[in-house]
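Q: For a teaching session next week I want to show students how multiple molecules come together into a single three-dimensional assembly. I've collected the sequence lines for a complex. Could you give me the predicted structure tokens for the whole thing so I can convert them for display?
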Amino acid sequence: MACLSLIEAKALQKALSGWVSLRTSVFAKNLRTVGGVDCAYATIKGRPRVFACAVVLSFPMLELLEEAFHARPVTFPYIPGYLSFRELPSMLGTLTKLKIVPDVLFVSGQGVAHPRGLGIASHLGVVAGLATIGIAKKPLFGLFQAPSLEAGSVSALTHPDDGSVIGFVVRAKTNVKPLYVSPGHRMDAETAVSIALQCVQKTKLPVPLHLADRLADRLKKALQRATGPDSVECLEPNPVEYVLAKNPWLNLLDP
DNA sequence: GCGACAG
DNA sequence: ATCTTGTCGC
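A: Of course. Below is the structure for the complete assembly, covering every listed component.
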């Protein structure tokens, strides 16, 4: 899937969208673990890399249980509507490294709130067979009215044609830009919002995604220092860099 | 034809 | 996504 034409990519999305289920899985109805996956970019030794970071937390305690990451070469440009062809490979590689498969996985980006009903959260859900929820910071597809400014207020995201509900615009924190939440796979829109809000604490992003974000930042900085003009032996004894030292960057540089 | 457009 | 200084608010 790394070298498809846009015509082929579009055809694949239309075909895979037929496999998306909007019925909440039994695992998601009895949540015990929630995960989050997010991507970041870094040019290492002159070579562009996209890496995905994933975390798994307990629910509803939201205590960190596991972290993982995986990098791949960048093989597809960023084109609105085709994000999965750029970031899915690294995300799948990361999920493969997790010992604990989360009951529900939050994915940065849209779920079914997509032109062809297959945002990256849905694409990932179908390919991995997981219950997923798409969480985006910006809208991509669908009509909506801005939700009121109080935390917890929501507004429906509807399909331009059907008028059907494809997700919700959610005000996770008072006076803060809303999130665009849509079911990815094995999940319904209402439950997606419910779970997302139950995972929000101090930041507008659900904790799983917030932690995946921070892990990506720390990892990126560690990589830049480890592969910068200077030395290669300057790793600090913190969790992330311990992982780096333990897993030769070869896995990150030449996957 | 013009504007919009996840990360 | 990424770059990038200061600034506002809990």
